Amino acid sequence: MDGGPRVPEQRHSGSPAQPDGSAALRFGVLGPVRAWRGGQALATGSPQQRALLAALLLREGRTATAAELIDALWGEEPPSQALAAVRTYASRLRKVLDPGVLVSESGGYAVRGLADGALDLSAAQDLAAGAEKARGAGDFAGARDALRDALALWDGEVLAGVPGPYAEGQRVRLEEWRLQLTETCLELDLEQGGHAEAVSELTALTAAHPLRERLRELLMLALYRSGRQAEALAVYADTRRLLADELGVDPRAGLQELQQRILRADPGLAEPSTPAAGTAAPPVRPAQLPATVPDFTGRAPFVRELSDALAAASGDGPGPGGRVMAVSALAGIGGVGKTTLAVHVAHRARAAFPDGQLYVDLQGAGARPAEPETVLGSFLRALGTADSAIPDSLEERAALYRSVLDGRRVLVLLDNARDAAQVRPLLPGTDGCAALVTARVRMVDLAGAHLVDLDVMSPEEALALFTRIVGEERVAAEREAALDVVGACGFLPLAIRIAASRLAARRTWTVSVLAAKLADERRRLDELQAGDLAVEATFELGYGQLEPAQARAFRLLGLADGPDISLAAAAAVLDLPARRTEDLLEALVDTSLLESAAPGRYRFHDLVRLYARACAERDEHPPAERGAALSRLLDFYLATAAGIYALERPGDRLVDHLEQTESEALRFTDGSAARDWLYTEGQSLLASVRQSVGTDRLRRAVDLLWAAKDLVESGANARQYEATADAVCEAARLAGDRRTEGRARTTLTNVLLVTGRIRRAEEEASLALECAAWAEDVAAGSWAANDRGLISLHQHRYADGKDFFDRAIRGFSEAGNRAGEATTSFNLSRAHLAMGNVGKAVEIARDGLALLATLGRTVRLANGHYALAMALTEAGRHTEALGQYNDALTVFVNHRQRLWEGTTHFRIAEAHLAARRPPQAAQHAEQALAVGCIGGDRMRGNVLTLLGRSLAALGQADRARACWREALNLYEETGAHEAAAVRALLASVDAA
């Protein structure tokens, strides 16, 4: 039996009476909060004043600070005069109580100098301890009487009418303890033949607490012993149906076993055991491990790792040595399955620890973690130590504990630890023993411990667990929906178990119905609860342990949508220096509420992020700080991306036309490091843009999209970039912001050109030009004109293309954007080349290169070399052309412009084939196919056509035919005019 609730006990001074001989004070908390002097009731004041008195009585004589008392009375939203109110309540109580009872100390208060038994809770604890001692000695009657006396001290609702979060928490805990005492008392009634009398009380209790299986089990036994077998079995049937409807689970193993024993009329159930009073119970080895779950799934590497560590203590492990005191500390986020795994491993290792297994839930994630001295007292009793031999102090109990374990082989499972300080006194000290520790924090300060970090399940393990609970038939019929469910659960075992249990209990639901419910992120945490199991409640325990600055960081960082976040970006969100931010983030990592994805990068589990956002909605004050945090993040990304754009394109004046920012940017002097940042942050940066849709941050968001255009031309994030640009376009249109709409459509046009969707690119570029003209946005208008020119080249409207390029160049010139002039001149060179003006094309390309050279090395130099090489190829100067292409290729590779790299390989292949070098042409065409090209499927068709021509020249007609057939399919799908030429090539091969 539990020796008491997990609340602090009131320390007794040992003074039997007041020094002046007057009647001693007495207090009650197991009902209304009351005080008496002898038989006279004392006025305890207002509800808040009684709440203050209760908080002090339950602190075992220790001082409660003013801040703690304010939190106990009012929680997160105290009144402005809370401190003054606390002082007033204390002053009034001091006048009512005896002198020296309520003392002021260190800015707080304490209740001291009370006589033994002065508090009803202390008396109940003493009676419960006496009952436990009597039961251990076999005195069941004495134990039952003591428990009845303890239960009689309750007088209605605990702390009745007392407000505040502290009182509410204690009400729950003390009610749970009362039920535990009641169950134990009823067990003793049944042990002594009082089954008929117990039926009535058990019937009422099971009605009041329908999901409490131990009460149901006792009722079944009482009914059976009363000759009412059919009713006993009916209780089981009711229980099974209720658990299935409410929780989606079956009755626990003990209840199922009792039903089977009743069905077969097991003689062992008929008569209670009635050992003689005073007969000592035979010594038993402790076997305290909770039952392992029958559907334990996966985790094979962790099971092996932990089993090997325990084997080292047993002497059965691999390698030399053995027989050591082994400690393994298992850390991970709430709900990841730490306890389930530890219990499973402990059961597997039981045979290696024949002297027993100890278990305790240390309540580390709760508001009141278990005290080590209390746990040691329980362990010593379980190991056969008499109460009278258990010392008082923590140090003496720890020493005796180690002595008792000396020479024994015992496994200790310390579940849900708060920190290493709580664990150290509970560790065995001798060879042959082992300890398994589970915690939400990594116990890096637990000397000699084998540390294990438990992550979420793999998709395969998650699906296997879901299937074991739901059933193979239902999952096999909707496998994709089942994968969606476990994905929505973030592969977190607790979430999967809850979701699967809900589905198993609802036969009319399909897996798709559950998947649809979980698809809504706003409702997902609400859906992931069944009975007293809830993912959100698990996270709440960890959140409740955070310091205020840590809690703020947790809330605000959860608002960002990206897959992860860098330290610098997090510092912008929190508006804190990087070092202080790192301290906060590492503290969150230690509590398993945040993961360290890589050095300097952090991420949330998907469900934890949803919970963090819920906390931000609930707790962040003022609410505007949520938007401000995301605004700082967007500013940081924009300022840094703009700096990188300027570094990569010296002389380009685009950055002068972007929205102003306030956040401090990262500064780079090395282009490689700058590109590293851009591509690493690509997904998070685009997520920040998408989060700004529909807010007052939209203008900065589209400018960030524009400054980060290299994400498209690299091919790394083209799809995400396009979806983001689409969303920004629509938001700007709905908002009537033509300037933002024009810029958004310019960025979207860029994506469409890269992916070869010319028809839609023309639509977007036309709208971009209109918006830019209306908003008098010179920067957007110039780039939109350039894009219209490129589209005209694709459509073979070369004169139109030339006019658009001339228009763009004029706009760049007026804006003083020399780099923009040079870049567009390369496109103008291609227009002249298409119109047959080869010499003019060469001249324009050379002039553009010379202009860029005066501005500094830039990625756009590659475009100049590329344009010049195309003109030189057409002029028949193949060697010069290849030199220019190679120069372009080097720049594109260094700047990670993958699609331009592939396109350049295609042009090199063209030059080689024109110079009658088909082997080299085929080689570069293959490289272009492997890397990818600007222009999407249409350009892939061009590469395949060229490859086919190279292969045909090498005598590989069949392979050439295959390339041309694939190219023809691509041209027909895209409506490209090149299809006719490929048909002619196929016809020529077929004719031959």
Describe the structure.
With 992 residues, the protein is α/β, with parallel strands linked by helices. The protein has 45 helices and 16 strands. Among the domains are: 1-192, Winged helix-like DNA-binding domain superfamily/Winged helix DNA-binding domain (Arc Repressor Mutant, subunit A, Orthogonal Bundle); 194-273, Serine Threonine Protein Phosphatase 5, Tetratricopeptide repeat (Alpha Horseshoe); 300-453, Rossmann fold, CATH 3.40.50.300; 459-531, no CATH class; 538-620, Orthogonal Bundle (Arc Repressor Mutant, subunit A), CATH 1.10.10.10; 897-991, Tetratricopeptide repeat domain (Serine Threonine Protein Phosphatase 5, Tetratricopeptide repeat, Alpha Horseshoe), CATH 1.25.40. Helix content is 61%, strand content 6%. The protein is elongated and about 115 Å long.
